[in-house]
Amino acid sequence: MHLIKDNSIVVTKNQYTAEEFIQKKIDLLKDEVEPFYAVDLEDVCNKHIRWITLMPRVKPHYAVKCNDDINVIKLLAYLGAGFDCASKGEIKKVMDLGASADRIIYANPCKQSSYIRYAQEVGVETMTFDNEQELMKIKQIYPNAKLVLRIVTDDSNAVCRFSMKFGADMNTARKLLDKAQEIDMRIIGVSFHCGSGQMTSKAFVDAIQNARMIMNYGNKLGFDMHLLDIGGGFPGNTGTEDYFAEISAAVNQALEEHFPDDGHIKIIAEPGRYYVASAYALATNVIALREMVDSETGNLKYMYYINDGVYGSFNCVLYDHYVPEPHVLTKGDLNEKYTTSIWGPTCDGLDCINKSIQIPKLNIGDWILWKNMGAYTISAAVQFNGLPYGKPIYFMPKHFWDSVKAAFQSIPRKHQVDTCIMRLNSCDCSNEVEDDMLPWIPEDFIEEAAVVTSQ
Known about the structure:
Layout: E1 9-12, H1 18-28, E2 36-40, H2 41-54, E3 58-63, H3 70-79, E4 82-85, H4 88-96, E5 104-106, H5 113-122, E6 126-129, H6 132-141, E7 146-150, H7 170-182, E8 186-191, H8 202-220, E9 227-229, H9 241-258, E10 266-269, H10 273-276, E11 280-293, E12 300-306, H11 316-319, E13 326-329, E14 337-343, E15 352-360, E16 367-370, E17 391-397, H12 398-404, E18 450-452
Parallel strand pairs: 1-17, 2-17, 3-4, 3-10, 4-5, 6-7, 7-8, 8-9, 9-10, 12-14
Antiparallel strand pairs: 1-18, 2-11, 11-12, 11-16, 13-16, 14-15
Helix pairs in contact: 2-3, 7-8, 8-9
């Protein structure tokens, strides 16, 4: 029997859910109790197919900041997606993995000067701005850039709001276009972002209408306004499929009304969580517990400490307003539930994942599954107290591997990867896959499988 290695792609003969895959992994563990992700790359592919089916006019540019996992970037590049990058590091990573400069929008309205120079050096021409100072800075550094004016939106119904930091109002947007004309800068379109986790399709509809007005004004000034970027905010958790379909229908209708397909307008978006949220399931282990008696009710209650926390994979609790839901993987009594709090492993009292939740009694060594953990988790995780956060193990059925394996082959690189900026959660993969490389061979789980390990 062989254990699979972390940061591996496991190709299985049969189809497995993340929970089934995690359970098989756990069954093989002895002393290894580090947290890990089961990453369903086929789920990412299915999201892409759904996107281009429901919004065929809108080309997705994956928001790298949401999850900078190398294998996700490789797969989406292979599928033809573009990329929304917010820094030199993200541009470099995407281009090192084979994406060309014309598939990147530098969608950060506040850019460091040296990063603008880097974008110019590597040929990334399209970038956003939302104020005169940024416009003048780009003029000085990169006068041939193709600029996209970001306008403000009503993101009051979003989980994470951006309009208090980014975006020009309608009057300011017109003045910025006047200034751009005066200094001979090239404006090619308008962008907006309705907020991460947007909860209403109306925000997209209103923003599209406003974008049309600004682009009309730009066209009157003589600009060739041919790019509309409708940003991100699209839902990606399991169970949000109908809501995404609703947003797609509303966006399509608004585009048809304000941007009819004349062959000239290019429309893009910046989905992040949409692609990766449901693809990542996190497995954590109970490393300690405290049993207490509630002073008011006299009932037992428990504190559980697990091996990942808010400084690691659960930073989404602090930064993304996410409320993760635990699914216990235990063979004990699941009917009787107790008031419980769940804590991370660090020495900080802030490291609390759930303050009060009703779950069955757990023991040290039991495992907890956390679904929908792909968005804004490992991309912002750190090893505070020297404690590791979850590392990914990728799994997919062989029929899917056969259709996408070219995405994970080694590629010629014009720009050498700077290892100092490559995150620990990201892994590169070798270009050789052999069907006889079995990740495990328990009697009840014989797999025709392959493992692709990091170079």
